[in-house]
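Posted in: Structural Biology > Protein-Ligand Complexes

Title: Requesting predicted complex, glucose-6-phosphate in pocket

I'd be grateful if someone could produce the 3D structure tokens for the following input. Sequence and ligand are given below.
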Amino acid sequence: MRKEVNKFKYWKKLASHYKKMKKVHMRELFEKDENRAEKYTIKLDSMLLDYSKNRIDDKTMQYLTGLARECKLDAKIEDMFEGKRINLTENRPVLHTALRNRANTPVYVDGKNVMPEINEVLAKMRSFSEAVRLGKFKGHTGKKLTNIVNIGIGGSDLGPVMAVEALRKYWAKDINCYFISNIDGTACAEVLNRIDPETTLFIVASKTFTTIETLTNARTCRKWLVDALGEHAVAKHFAALSTNVKEVEKFGINPENMFEFWDFVGGRYSMWSAIGLSIAIAIGMDNFERMLDGAYAMDVHFRTADFEHNIPVILGLLGIWYNNFFNLRNYAVVPYDEYLKYVPAYLQQLEMESNGKFVSNHDEYVKYATAPVLFGGAGTNVQHSFFQLLHQGTTVVPCDFIIPAISHNEIGEHHEILMANVLAQGEALMRGKTVKEAAEELAKAGKSKEEVKFLKKYKSFPGNRPSNTIVFKKIDPYALGMLIAMYEHKVFVQGVIWDIDSFDQMGVELGKQMALSILPELQGNAYSMGHDSSTAGLIKHIKRLRK
Ligand code: G6Q
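-- Reply #1 --
Done. Output follows.
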């Protein structure tokens, strides 16, 4: 049995090294070493990670990579790629990497190569998405299907919605994509109000095909379609993405329009599988495969680069450094690209559902912090909201900035202003502004002595606030594939260090269970004695309001 990570040699080294590093300002580190940026930069294809604006020195990186080795990260990486059952609580392999294994080398699960099945589904996705895009697969009344509605939630929604939005520039001209996830009837109503049944394809995306939100939304959409076009229309207007053939058939979706995936693909890791059908229809299968290529390039890098030059490993370890030694429990991701505005929401699930765990792989409560709270939003918008706290708040929030050097919409000076902003934020967070500097600036601006004295602290910035800068040439499908695979592997690295199962999600079950018991109480006169007084009171109050 593995020792707890906080008893590891390198953890202890890091703990004492932290005592020294907490007093060091990054300004000094940059001043001392003019090659710092170069030293702490990694390039892969057209992607660059600059992690020099972190509170690290060579010792830090040596100890962090030492810790990764002590945790046998290299062997764990191989276990994942080779299809070992690393999802212990669900006793499953974790093979989203096989979905984008562009070398097509065999990957075995229980002695069976899974690549032929994966390729078969990709081929089916190609022929179906092309038929829809070319208008060969028509609706019941013979019209082209131009409204694509993905009905799914969690992992069956967040990946597709994020990628479809990120790659909006690649959409077929006449295709529109919509997403219905929330059980809130408003989600359905707002989409259905905007589309025409004759030109709509509903894609029901559900790994289990038992999720109450998705099935309720799918039934509502089915009724809407049948009311307009009749029962026979369902075959031409519904497709399903699932591992559950039986339930799909029961729902009445033509098996020809069903796209399978497998238990070895976790929900939040499934956008590379059939769950990505809406992406494939929107951007075309060639572009979808470019996205897989980008992810594959990151997979190869993750699997082969030494830890010192391995992007996901470095990012994962930096997260550990802040979370477990600086005790920083928040983490922000800020893409400076409007098209990437759903990336933070996507990453919230990826990071917090994967690593928001409190029991280790050895059935013990962990005695150290696991995943931090992730939040974010598109720059520059969020500079005008939560950045105040990033610069002057009492808590430090490490940030990732994601930047495309070239915009899909190069209009006037917009993109340069955007870039200037993100670079300025990183520099400002790192450098800060001392009280003395603030005073000098105020005096120069002609403020009186009293004003300078009063304002100088308010106008100062502590700095020494870490950020990573991730630069792409342009956000194309390949770059997006790299970016998302990078974060997937970063999460994996942290899961290994924390010794937790990053691939289950038991924490979402309790609320679901309790909702099932509250539902009959809201709907009828059922009454349960089991509730606390707050919940019981709220049930009563809502029932009264709804009468
Ligand atoms: C992700 C989770 C979860 C899941 C949804 C939808 O990793 O498993 O977010 O994707 O609960 O599940 P279904 O696809 O089975 O409807």
